[in-house]
Amino acid sequence: MDIKKIKSDLKNEDGVSPVIGVILMVAIVVLLAAIVAAFVFGVVTIPSPTPQASLAVDDATWDENDKLNVTLLHQSGSTLDADTKIVITDLNNTDNVNTTTLSDWYNVEDDWSTGERINITIENEDFEHYPDEIEVRVIDEPSGGTISVMTSTVTEL
Hints:
- The chain is of the alpha+beta class.
- It has two helices and ten strands.
């Protein structure tokens, strides 16, 4: 073995490192281009934020016409638009569900702001029996996020 040859081979700085560096740089550029293209062409969408609001069940009663009247109060937070979904569930029988939107009610035109109340009237046919405890879930339609979940005892007039 020639020791001089081995030493010269060890001192030779030419190698695979520059090739690997170029391949890694190309891979990073291609990956970044793919991410930017996904956002530009709408493949990846950024979800809209869910509004934050404090809501309360002001009143929940059965009236003399066998209708469930639920009054909701917007206490504070973001203004909610007319597409906001309201789901009322009988807690004794969770198969009994009524889904509506704010725009279905006469006193909500475009949005629901702090301090305003909405009155929701549900016919008895929408429930198999008279629920004595309900859950009211308010859902933002664009984001799909839950704004508020409230429970209330239903009283009879």
